[in-house]
Amino acid sequence: MDNYNSQWVSLHIRDHLKDGEITVQNTVIEGGEFHNPEDRRKSLTEEDIDEMKISSDGIGEISARGRRGSEGRLDLFHGDTKICELHWENRGGEYENLVEVLDESDKYRIEHGGWSPQAGPLGHVFVDISAAKKK
């Protein structure tokens, strides 16, 4: 990988919901660009990412890169219900590498992990979405 692509992140969103699909909306990226996970030479726009649909028991992959990292956010929806906002940053700001789940609905269980907290590429981030246990 050349220096332009040295700071990368790959979000693996896994849909463990029994019905419906997860959709991506309101995608924003700063300081980098999205690319096709299967062909890193093919750039994707925020609008391309917003068209992503992840079927039940499926996996959606969103990849981004930039010489100095990237910062981005996107919302995940199940039907008309917002599941959460995902936010990542690896531009060497206040935090070396950061991935966080914001504004999460109590109807869903969201688990995330796998990335590197050290300076450098965030790497692979695994996000698992399932229904919350009924109380």
From TrEMBL:
State the InterPro entries in the record.
Aegerolysin-typ
Give the superkingdom in one word: Eukaryota
Query: Per the UniProt entry, what are the Gene Ontology biological process annotations, in alphabetical order?
Result: symbiont-mediated hemolysis of host erythrocyte
Gene3D superfamilies named among the record's database cross-references: 2.60.270.50
Q: Note the Pfam families from the entry.
A: Aegerolysin
Name the protein family. Belongs to the aegerolysin family.
Protein name per UniProt: Terrelysin
Q: What species was this sequence derived from?
A: Penicillium canariense
